[in-house]
Amino acid sequence: MIDTHCHILPGLDDGAQNLEQFLAMTEIAVQDGIRIIIATPHVMAGAYDNSKEEIISAVQQVNTILTEKEIPLKILPGAEYHIEPDLPRRMKQGELLTLNNNGRYLLVEFPSAYIPSYTERILYELQLWGVTPVIAHPERNTAFAKKPSLLAQFVAKGMPTQVTAGSLTGSFGRQIQKTALSFIKQSLVHMIVSDAHSSKARRPVLSSAAAVVKKHFSEEVASKMVKDNPKSISSGNSINLAEQKIRKNWSSIITNLFPQRKA
């Protein structure tokens, strides 16, 4: 499996804080069957000012350590950019780090409670520069959850999305779990990612979430989300954003997961 969103680089953001924590996370990832991780430290003005060069250097350093310790895991460079008006300018100047530095996909996150008014313009301008925005954890955004058609508009314009593994397994609560499953039903999800921050909580694990998708939809859909699409993203290739094949009736999924409470 390939994880395209993970805060595993030590000391760059609110993820792994040191080499010991980094190694603990790699051990969990390998045990789960993950073989490639795109490291995506936060980049947010005034909070996490990680530069493209700093991230690439950190990735090179940890890969050297993994090789020395014979750990069967490869770290690729990436970043998670908070949506900001100057992203297109920074992209033009070569400051932004795309996923695996292949110039194709840029991971973008929104505030949790709303979608900024300039979002559509910024994402469109990024596309004009040949970069495809990848939308991080839309199921945890209040605006998308209330109005999925807003997310559908971005997907229709060629922007893939990631859903956090913990959202599918219920770690963020039942409502977010329901939203994540609903997005999959509507063909609005293209990858499952760990968005891991530590070896304790928010761990680098994909298999349990993939099992949820396999159970309620199909093995084919689950495989696309943790293997096929992440491989295409990391290689800079196109992915098919068309409708997925859904195996089960949506109403039965919701009934089984969220039975009506008795009065």
Written overview of the protein:
There is one protein chain. The model has no long low-confidence stretch (mean pLDDT 94). The longest helix is centred in the N-terminal third of the chain and has 17 residues, at 52-68. The chain is 43% helix and 13% strand. The chain is an alpha/beta fold. The chain has helices at 19-32, 52-68, 87-92, 119-128, 142-146, 148-156, 165-169, 174-185, 207-216, 219-235, 250-257; strands at residues 2-6, 36-39, 42-43, 74-77, 80-82, 105-109, 132-135, 162-164, 191-193. It starts with a strand and ends in a 6-residue tail after the last helix. Strands 3-5-6-7 form a four-stranded parallel β-sheet, covered by helices on one side. It contains eleven helices and nine strands. It has one domain (2-257): Alpha-Beta Barrel (TIM Barrel).
List keywords for this structure.
TIM Barrel; alpha/beta; globular; single chain; four-stranded parallel beta sheet; 43% helix; 11 helices
Arrangement of strands in the largest sheet: 3-5-6-7
How much β-strand is present in the residues?
A: 5-15%
Q: If you consult CATH, what is the topology?
A: TIM Barrel
User: Which architecture name does CATH use?
Assistant: Alpha-Beta Barrel
- Helix fraction bin: 40-55%
- Summarize the helix and strand pattern as letters: EHEEHEEHEHEHHEHHEHHH
Number of distinct helices: 11
Q: What's the CATH class, please?
A: Alpha Beta
Question: Biggest sheet: strands, sense, closure?
Answer: 4 strands, parallel
Task: Give the assembly state of these chains.
Answer: single chain
Q: Which residues sit in consecutive blocks of at least 5 with pLDDT less than 50?
A: none
* Average of pLDDT: 94
Q: Roughly how many Å apart are the termini?
A: 43 Å
Q: Strand tally, please?
A: 9
What is the rounded Rg?
18 Å
Protein structure class: alpha/beta
